[in-house]
From TrEMBL:
InterPro entries: Methanogen_methyltrans, UROD/MetE-like_sf, Uroporphyrinogen_deCOase. It comes from the Bacteria. Residues 2-63 form the Uroporphyrinogen decarboxylase (URO-D) domain. GO terms for biological process: porphyrin-containing compound biosynthetic process. This is Cobalamin B12-binding protein. One of its GO terms (molecular function) is uroporphyrinogen decarboxylase activity. It comes from Leadbettera azotonutricia (strain ATCC BAA-888 / DSM 13862 / ZAS-9).
Length: 68
């Protein structure tokens, strides 16, 4: 079984800072990724006004902390 999610698209991805994105992504990985099968993602889609810096930070955080 796999679990996908769950960064909040408005408060974290759209309105948050890159540091907020990193903190939320790391927490999601720590909470759900221990035994594999976790897909880090937003809770929905990223809105068109989502800052590129936040999207890049999500990818960077996944590369750093998402290997197990």
């Amino acid at each position: 079984m796999s679990l996908m999610g769950n960064l909040q698209t408005t408060q974290v991805m759209l309105k948050g800072s890159p540091a907020d994105v990193e903190r939320a992504a790391k927490k999601a990985i720590d909470d759900a990724g221990a035994d594999g099968g976790f897909l880090l993602s937003t809770g929905d889609q990223c809105g068109r006004d989502t800052p590129e810096a936040n999207i890049f930070k999500l990818v960077e955080t996944a590369k750093i902390y998402g290997k197990y």
